[in-house]
Amino acid sequence: MWLSRRNCSVAIADVDMEDRKNKLDTVQGLKTARMKRKNSTQSPSARRTKKLKADKDISKASSLESGSNSTETPSTSTTWEGGSKKEEKEDDVTCGQPPLKKVKTETCPQGQPVRFPANASSIKEEVEMNWDIVQVLSERTNIELWVCANIIRLFNDDNTIPFIIRYRKELINNLDADSLREVRQTLEELRAVAKKTHSTIQKIKKEGKMSECLLKALLNCKTFEELEHVSAPYKTGSKGTKAQRAKQLGLEGAARTLLENPGELNLLSYIRPNVKGLSALQDIETGVQHILADMIAKDRDTLDFIRKLCQNRYICIQSSLAKVSSKKVNEKDVDKFQLYQNFSCNIRNIQHHQILAINRGENLKILTVKVNISDGVKNEFCRWCIQNRWRPRGFARPELMKILYSSLDDSFKRLIYPLLCREFRAKLTSDAEKESVMMFGRNLRQLLLTSPVPGRTLMGVDPGYKHGCKLAIISPTSQILHTDVVYLHCGQGFREAEKIKRLLLNFNCSTVVIGNGTACRETEAYFADLIMKNYFAPLDVVYCIVSEAGASIYSVSPEANKEMPGLDPNLRSAVSIARRVQDPLAELVKIEPKHIGVGMYQHDVSQTLLKATLDSVVEECVSFVGVDINICSEVLLRHIAGLNANRAKNIIEWREKNGPFINREQLKKVKGLGPKSFQQCAGFIRVNQDYIRTFCSSQQTESAGEIQGVAVTSSAGVEVTNEKPGKKKSKTAVNVVLKPNPLDQTCIHPESYDIAMRFLSFIGGTLNEIGKPEMQQKINSFLEKEGIEKIAERLQTTVHTLQVIIDGLSQPETFDFRTDFDKPDFKRSIVCLEDLQVGTVLTGKVENATLFGIFVDIGVGRSGLIPIRNVTEAKLSKTKKRRSLGLGPGERVEVQVLNIDIPRSRITLDLIRVL
Known about the structure:
Layout: H1 17-41, H2 44-47, H3 53-63, H4 65-68, E1 80-81, E2 84-85, H5 133-141, H6 145-156, H7 161-167, H8 177-206, H9 212-219, H10 224-231, H11 242-248, H12 252-260, H13 281-297, H14 300-311, E3 315-321, H15 331-336, E4 342-346, H16 352-363, E5 367-373, H17 375-389, H18 398-448, E6 458-462, E7 469-474, E8 480-486, H19 493-506, E9 511-515, H20 520-532, E10 542-546, H21 551-555, H22 558-563, H23 569-582, H24 584-588, H25 607-625, E11 627-628, H26 634-637, H27 645-658, H28 675-681, E12 685-686, H29 689-703, H30 753-763, H31 773-786, H32 788-794, H33 799-810, E13 841-849, E14 853-857, E15 863-867, H34 878-881, E16 892-901, E17 906-914
Parallel strand pairs: 6-9, 9-10, 11-12
Antiparallel strand pairs: 1-2, 3-4, 3-5, 6-7, 7-8, 13-14, 13-16, 14-15, 16-17
Helix pairs in contact: 5-6, 5-8, 6-8, 11-13, 12-13, 13-18, 14-17, 16-18, 17-18, 18-25, 32-33
GO molecular function, one term: RNA binding
Domain S1 motif: 839-912
Keywords: Coiled coil, Isopeptide bond, Phosphoprotein, RNA-binding, Ubl conjugation
């Protein structure tokens, strides 16, 4: 159905039950009249469309919108101006980790749903179907109807996930980023199904094969599998189904008569001796059976019943070794699937990684997979059909009942059972792929948010044997100071040690970063031995191991060539390795996410879904960390919410041409950056006030207060501009005040600046106190007296918006929430696998998280595995419990050795606690 505006906005109603009933009666009467007028112009098929019960619930809630404005509570409603809603946020620095267990929430913050305002843009009209997209979205994602309706509107208004999470959180009931991505993906799937359905309908109509029953069946489809099941016989070039051939013989009337008036059915009258398929009574009975079987298999109520029936029955998936193995199959590949060569598991209990493994084995022609449905399901299904849905409307002779029973059996075995198997496999695969992609995203987020190590001179080492170890020394500001190649594993280790020592002393470098690729273990042992001998004295040298995944790919990319022209690609890898410790986020965004190597079965899942999710995670991380508009790179800038490669390039070009940005408002002057893009990106872009003050001072010194053209006043009373003198303004030029604004260095969105200024007047604070201890003291004192809810009400804003303002005013200029995440594990010595003993307690760093366990680097050259069953809620800190038991790369853990398999180099660990 077309989603009307009234079906997608949920109002806050705080009126007594009698008033509510009167309003509902009045609106319902108007709605009925409108629907009658609408139906008079609709096609017969559209008039037959039924609304779901949940659609009525949404309509009831939204119908109160016109009369509920006067009863809204300012702290729970959302203030809009000119169609743009004020932001709200509970925690400024939260990156939206998923909850431990996804449970459908019952209430929103402060206990009431938050509606969209009447002047907001409506939900984009959906393709008409026999189901409500909001209802189905709610069922599939386990999220409330009003939240789903709001999310659809937010996405239709081109809002980005970071913007929604930080500035529109009240409308989504505090959902995290992963949940929003899941909703968006499900929404796109439903729209794709609806679009393909209507495309299929047009094709079938064009061929003249459309019927009333077929149209209804097509409009009932909610998945691609259902659509394929219904439309397959009508595809161009199809030979047609048995039911179609029977209908062409004129037996459809007989089949309907058997159900509606069996006493009048005489099958002998259909015999035609010279017509194939009608020459004998048995042929006619078979034809009627095929038509009935097809009707049963495409009936919505019947399919809904069998699906519901299967939910409470034992359905298992089985895999076995393929009888006819392909000649191309490698014996080693066969051994990898030993666990699944005689495997059986209930589909409700099977793990996601098991599904992906089984699918891979099946694709390689190593495994044969099937779904088994118990006979009890079939028996109960047939009993229900005879007693309810497909019971003849009158007395049917035994021979006719026999045809009906045969039709039920044929429909289940030939049509419904294969459909259910396809649906089960598709659902299991889809869920497994989504979970795998989400795990990849969580790992990527954890890696990107690794705490930076600023202020150090670092030596990056890209290990190697024959071609040597590549060295690169970088300054605290990531500038390349020196590059070299040393041959540590070719009998020249002692001589090369002198060169390394000289480099470390010359550049006062005491931190070595070693890539974890080829020759990593030997290189680590080499440096550990020198450190233990105090060879680098007086320097206290430490080292760490980092992943070099993607470094070689990046080193030969155009981006690397532009950044480090003339430098050998092998040496570029060493530079990248060092920078991954200094500022992991700034370096890793240069690499395509799927090359970072923290996923599971990443080549087996949907590449479109994988890319969309990983790109979204990168955008989320970069946006929440924020960028300094005057010093950030183009690569980093393009990942900010609301920006892309072209807009980032235009910003950099504007900065190079006109000088630094004085404030956020100047972004409006950049080509290609319209109001929507500005709204989405402004809150994540910072203008460092120290940098601007330095710029203002230098410009004032050069020109004694009149700087290069148009004069504007800075916060210090100095008139500043960075516009070129005599430059002709374009007709699209935006007039903005180039006055430095201390709020531009905070997470506060420009649309809330007026609220922030009023809040400052309440507490007696000034802009110059932002981020200082005295500001924090004033805020705390005021909150203790008034309370955040009361203050938000006085300011006529939301609690979320006010919390963002408080965070922005309290956080210092150098605030970086990544400091709360784990730093690299710096070491001075090395431990061997043979040194381990069962029961030994160690500390290590998570390398990768999968659906079956956590891989931990414990410093012995081989990663240990913590089985997922050993990662329990009790072992996690409070901050980790809200992340779906999710440990990610870079986190430090304390573990105990449970088992050591030296021949297979396998170490099994138990998680003691997260450090």
